[in-house]
Amino acid sequence: MPELLIAGARVVDPFQGTDEHADVLVSRGRIAEVGRGIGREGREVLEASGLVLAPAFLELHAHLREPGDEDAETLETGLEAALRGGYAAVCCMPNTRPPLDHPAVVSGLAARARALGLADLYVVGCITRGREGRDLADLGLMHACEARVRAFSDDGAGVEDAGIMRLALQYASAFGGLIISHPEDARLSRGGQVNEGAASVALGLRGIPSLAEEVMVARDILLAEETGGRLHLAHISTARSAAMVREAKERGVRVTAEVTPHHLVLSERDIGDYDTSYKMSPPLRTPADVAALREALRDGTIDAVATDHAPHRREDKEKEFDYAPFGVVGMESAFPVLYRELVEGGELTLMRLLEALTRGPAAVLGLEPPDYGGGIVVGARADLVLLDLEEEWTLDATRFASKGRNCPFHGRAVKGRVACTIKGGRVVHGGGGGGRRG
Amino acid sequence: MAERRHLLDIDDLDRDGIERMLDMARSFAEVLRRPIKKVPSLRGKTVANLFYEPSTRTRLSFELAAKRLSADVLNFTASASSVEKGESLKDTALTLEAMGVDAVVVRHPVAGAPWLLRRWTEATILNAGDGMHAHPTQALLDLFTMRERLGDLEGRTVAFVGDVLHSRVARSGMKACRAVGMEVLAVGPPTLLPPAPVEGVEYVHDFEAALPRCDVIYMLRMQRERQQEGRVPSLEEYTRFYQLNAERMGRARPGALVMHPGPMNRGVEIAGEVADAPYAAVTAQVTAGVAVRMAALFTLLGGAEGGSEVA
């Protein structure tokens, strides 16, 4: 493989906190040189003037539906969607059929992903056997096996039994395992379809109160505080959840949190004519919640943006609102939507957005070089994205690599595109058109 | 081609549209008093009644209204049909479309189903009740009944009493009453009222205190299921605080009207003596239903020009 010279990009590196124009030379899958005026001779040159070069993104929360629901998504389509969205690595959630609760299952899945050679896969294992909420799964064995599971979750449902959650946090702390909470009290959310309040009243649908999330956020923070375990709160959606995370961090609790692009951009007011592409769990909340989540992302209370990519079969989503499943796809729309709405909208710096897509999730998961991260420095693995921040275009879900078309941003005018994804020094998405001049 | 017109919820109509619909219903009510109760207005049109929930009263009312206008009527009742074989709402819509149906009257247990149908067929959609969301023709027939009994409704006060939270009748009814300038109260325990404010609606928990303000007392059906959900401790307790009986009627304004969408739970939300009293308009509501639905079908299926009823 010839050396690859990425020439003339604006290099924005959240790991180093740097933002400067430079050439980047990639050799044998790693970054070999960063500087100005690097020689072109004998090298493959990717013209990148006018583009931003950043570390490739890390997806903390995706549903790739394998095994068991390959009609909705496969490792192949899901990891291809990741590359198109600028992600070099993806954590997949274990609510599959069967669930990912056993070393053999997680190892098999990890091996299949390696063979595909697309984005890297980090398998999230179940907290409890069968995701039934009763007995701990073999957390240590999953961590020790070939798949090296780092994080555990019963995502899709909260762990209702506080005693089990406490044991999980205690037990996993022995090997630094991360416990990912799906904060939802099913007794409070039961039967709900949209946020309880203005939306549920206007639409005549059953409501899911903010409290259904908040009581479990509060509980899990207390459990993490007492056990010293590492807790990550998935897809928080309310102002009060964000406030509780902020206070917990100030107290020194080992807690991190993620937010999805849809909860940062959309509110319950956008649901409109019962389009099930707006049906997700947790539900879209109020504009005040959206504002609070943006503030929490800005000030670092929320560590990462994760898409909660949840593809569903078209027939399953084309149903009456109550009958359609929760969830929306997100990996291919995340960057352009967030760039347009938050960075262009003046709410977030480009640096902070990129940090929430790269360094933030890496810190949550405890990933370090050479697995992932380190930034755009000599010796780091060349997992990179080139971003065209000027391009204005319209999101078209029918052209996604994901099998899922359930995207609330379909048809939305966006700005900024992942022009090129480079994985291990190889261009794996885009890169044909060269850079933008001027 | 003219834009398709639908009646999905009462706010598809502005105040003028509501008034015109009620005026038209009055002329159809006159037709219904003739020896030959039929006009040729919708001859050649086909109306499908698509009922995913049992509702004899509403289905018969729509069926009769369509027939009085000389339309052809198809009845599709979900329990005895393709739904049991797993056919989706979308496929059913496409089937009706292929049959060239002009209008679909839909009753469905899930809120929003009529909005989905609108996306999937070219037919005019009339919402005959979706989940706990909307029931616009019920709201119209209720307004019709109030207007016939009380005259001008501007400034009058109506109380919707009981399970407002789960009631599509109340949801559309409150909007309709607000639209014609009425004051609206929602009366019930906090667990049975909507979890957010409804514009222009005052929430009241003390039924007896509210009664002296009311020109119309609109009693809602109390479902046993709500007790099973724990929203009220017992039907006995509910009855004690929220049943409309003769004694409570004594506190209401003179000439106050009692209404109920039916079917009534006598002895629960309404005492038998009240249901049968002359101030109760329950059967008048049923009669009004046919005339109002004739007006809706006639307006939407091209019988009336220049309506504002465009959804």
Task: From the structure above, extract its key features.
heterodimer, A: 438 residues, alpha/beta, eight-stranded mixed beta sheet, five-stranded parallel beta sheet, 29% helix, disordered C terminus, B: 311 residues, four-stranded parallel beta sheet, 12 helices, globular
How would you describe this structure to a colleague?
The complex is a heterodimer of chains A (438) and B (311). The radius of gyration of chain A is 21 Å and the shape is globular. The C terminus of chain A is likely disordered. Chain A is built from 14 helices and 18 strands. Chain A is α/β, with parallel strands linked by helices and 438 residues long. In chain A, the strands form four sheets. In chain A, strands 1, 2, 3, 4, 5, 16, 17 and 18 form an eight-stranded mixed β-sheet that branches. Chain A has a five-stranded parallel β-sheet with strand order 9-10-13-14-15. In chain A, 61% of the residues are buried. Chain B is an alpha/beta fold and 311 residues long. In chain B, helix 4 links the parallel strand 3 and strand 4. The longest helix of chain B is centred in the C-terminal third of the chain and has 22 residues. Chain B starts with 14 loop residues before the first helix and ends in an 8-residue tail after the last helix. The C terminus of chain B is likely disordered. The interface between A and B is medium-sized, with 20 and 23 residues.
Radius of gyration of chain B: 19 Å
**SS-based class of chain A:** alpha/beta
Q: How far apart are the first and last residues' alpha carbons of chain A, in Å? A: 30 Å
Shape of chain A: globular
Structural class of chain B: alpha/beta
Number of strands of chain A: 18
Helix content of chain B: 25-40%
The major sheet of chain B is characterized as: 5 strands, parallel
Would you identify the regions of chain B where 5 or more consecutive residues have pLDDT less than 50? 305-311
Strand order across the biggest sheet of chain B?
7-6-5-8-9
Radius of gyration of CA atoms of chain A, rounded to a whole number:
21 Å
How is the main sheet of chain A built?
Answer: 8 strands, mixed
Basic shape of chain B: globular
Overall mean pLDDT score of chain B?
93
Strand portion of chain B, in percent?
A: 5-15%
Largest interface: A-B, 20 and 23 residues
